[in-house]
Structure formats: C-alpha cells, structure tokens
Amino acid sequence: MWRFYSPAVLPATAEYMAADRVVRLNPALITLLDGRIDAVPVTVLQQEVTEQVRHLFSRRKVMTFHCDINFPDYGGFGEPAPCSNQAVFTPDFLAGLAADIRCQGGYLNLHMLTDRPLERWREYQGVSPAAVCYQLDAVPDPVYHRQLLDSINEQGSCASPVIEIFGSDSRPARAPADTFSQVQPFLRELPMLTFQAEATAARSSFAAGGLASFAVKEYIAYYQERYNGAIQLQGGVKPGTIRDAAALGADFLVCGTAIFRSGTNSPAEMVDRLLWELAAEK
C-alpha cells in the first residue's frame, strides 16, 4: 500500500494520465449523502454507495475511493455545519465496503473529521482502510500525534494528515511554516499529505467555488521544497480545474461534487470527462 500512496514515477504523458496512472482520481463518497441523510433511509444510502463503488470500479478508471466521516465533535466546521454521517458510514458497513474494494484490487481512504482522531480510529480500525486521513489541526499535541500514528501503522494503513489551506471562521488556516513544523517530526511515516484546497467552510454541505490555484500553489510549493512524498488535493476539482490541480503537483485528486452531482452526466461519464480533460492537448 505504501507503494501505491507514493509519488508517481511514470512520465506525465497524455497516455499515462488517461490511464489514471499518474494523477489518480479519488471519488468522494460523502457527496452521495449530501442533503439526503435526514430524508432517505440509511439502508438505501448504503446500497447506493455500494452500487456506485462497484460500477465505477468495474470500469477500471479509478482505483481508490475516499470516505469522509463527519463527527459532531469536530470544531473546524464552518457554518452551516454539515450533517453527521456515521449512521450511514458505520464501522460494519465500511468494513464490508473496504473488503469488497480490496477483493477487486482497489483501495479505500478513510477521512475522519474529528477532534478525537485516536479514539475514533479505534472505533473504525476494523475497516482496515488503505489510507487514514485525519485533521492536522486536531493533533496539536505531538505525544497524542505519535500515539495516533503508531496505531495506524500497526494496522498496516498509511497515515495522511489533512492540512487546511483556507480553514474556517471557527478555526482559521495557519501559515505553511506552522503546519510543516507540526508534521516535520513524522515525515518519514507519512507517504502522502492531503491538502484541503477549497474554501468550503461547511465541508460537504455545499461547494463554495472553484480551485483557488494561486493560494494553493504557494502553499504546496512550500511543502514540495521540504517533502518528497505524494500530494493529495481535496476540494474544487472539476473539469475546468483538473489540469490546474494536476499542475500543482497532485498525485491524488479527491473529487466528489463533479462526479456524483453533475446533474447532466452519470458518475462514470464524469470520470471519463475528467480524465479526458486531464489528458487532452491544450
């Protein structure tokens, strides 16, 4: 798994990109739940998530899926705060989904939006996700961070802290030098860093706009001078911005709204379009 969550070494030609071998799309499954948790039965939502994963994976255009879990204890949400979704993304459901994905040669990312990542991870470690994303702003204590990383590593999963480039009113963003000093002691154990690259304050309740490329570029450039692992971008990735996102140095692109809520194209069609946009000659 560590090899998969590492920077691409192949040349970034149109052919490789079209095959999803350089920049890897990571569909955000939470988008299937947006605005529906209180209106649609849990079993129906779980079935839809399972069907979408199987359908997209069957086309062999994606190898990894991203599952955000919004916990009510996370203090970094903006307003309006998103709905808690652990009633749908339960440990048992995700364990079955992850096993299904692994059987087909794929990977599941678990992203825990919580101020208690170690405790939440202990609830969900039976999922055996390939990668575990957690909010960097939730682990200011290096001893606690060390305990979290040890637990993730013991499970055989890859750890990837999520760094907020824009933050929210309740928890403003920090300068890259500040966040880097927090991850620096653990860099050898972090094959991938994830950057929240869109000012979506409510986090999964609505899309705030496109990718703010200039601000994101400056932030990531600071890290790339000091870190040689993989970069994952989350937020603002859609047909009009995917090439910009790739140009920022991303190895993984988390994309939900464009894939699952386009309104005009099916998820599979949107994946094809995103890959075409990425590979097309301009």
TrEMBL record:
* Gene3D superfamilies on file: Aldolase class I
**Alphabetized InterPro entries for the sequence:** Aldolase_TIM (IPR013785), RibuloseP-bd_barrel (IPR011060)
Q: Which domain of life is it from?
A: Bacteria
Q: What's the name of the protein?
A: Ribulose-phosphate 3-epimerase
